[in-house]
Amino acid sequence: MDFDSAYIEPLLDDWLETLRSVITAQENLIKAKDEFYMPFVAIPLPVVNAIFKITEHLDLGPDTRYVAIHLYDKFMCNYFWEVYKNTDQTENSWIEVCKKISSQSKLYLMSCLQLASKMDSHSRNLKISQVLNILQWIDKESEYTHSTIFLSEYKVFKTVGFRMPFCTPLNCIEILLAATGLKDTPNIQELAISLLDLVYLQREKLCSHLQCLIQGNVAKTQKEWRNFMTLESNVLYLGASIVLCGTFFLCIDGEMSNVIALKLSQLIDVEMNDIWNMANILLVMAIQE
Q: Looking at residue 125, what DSSP letter applies?
């Protein structure tokens, strides 16, 4: 997004309300017992690394990168549930489901990148020839055709209900920067993107520390696990923590940081201490990097 304060202010409340409703719907899905949705289960570090390297190689921007990450995560969860429900759900079937999904994962990953690039006005759309070249690079044992690429892209889009990710963490960061008046602070957007990249490359470490700070221990019960997962998947919470962490690097004084933290807490309806906790963990991780 390219925010302009001349027209953005009247829309901020509506955008935040919509984002909060999307997050609430996602939290309900996580807690539902008759559905399968585990955020981030389909995007372990090797997948994130692959997306980062491919987008860098193709000179695709951060918007494409994060739409692709969240699209792939949602698609793989939906696809797994769709395939699993249509089997007899025995141990052998489970193995076959995993094999089938694994064998097609690189193709579907490229389809997610292809779809994501079409949503980014700052990037050129990925052409089928480019997708084929990348697949030849990352999957030398398989053969792909133009038809395969086209059908895969349609399969991905259909499986996610023909809906692209509406609220990636990057979108949330941009909205929160505008809502807190920090949008025009020099270097804040570049710094925020760097911190967001760090989160996705160190997610397991971040979440482990965050659980211990908030819950006192790593989740042991089903209830603790689901409660933490709803917080972990809250992209507004992540965006607010990154914005607050960014103020530390820009040498904004402590009193002003407290004002910003309170404002962020009110905007996203998350306890201020929780925002401070993640922001401090991010600060330490960034310094160590």
A: P
- Among positive and negative, which fits the CA dihedral 48, 244, 172, 36? positive
Spatial CA neighbour of 109 closest among 51, 163, 61: 51
Encoded tokens for 97: 């489901």
Greatest alpha-carbon pair distance for the chain in Å reads 60
Distance CA 118, CA 123 (A): 8
What's the whole-model pTM score? 0.90
Residue 1, pLDDT above cutoff 50:
no
Q: How far is CA 216 from CA 145, 190, 213, 228, 288, in A?
A: 52, 33, 6, 12, 23
Measured in degrees and rounded to the nearest 5, phi and psi for residue 51 equal: -65, -45
* C-alpha dihedral sign at 87, 111, 163, 69: positive
Contact in structure between 36 and 84 (CB atoms under 8 Å) = yes
Q: Which residues are CB-neighbours of 67 under 8 A, at least 6 positions away?
A: 115, 116, 119, 120, 164, 165, 168
Nearest-5° angle of CA 213, CA 214, CA 217? 70
Contacts of residues 248-253 at CB distance under 8 Å and 24 or more positions apart, as own/partner, are 248/279, 248/283, 249/191, 249/283, 249/286, 250/185, 250/187, 250/188, 250/191
For residue 234, pLDDT over 50 is answered with yes
Residues written for the chain: 289
In this prediction, residue 280 has a pLDDT band, given cuts at 50, 70 and 90, of very high
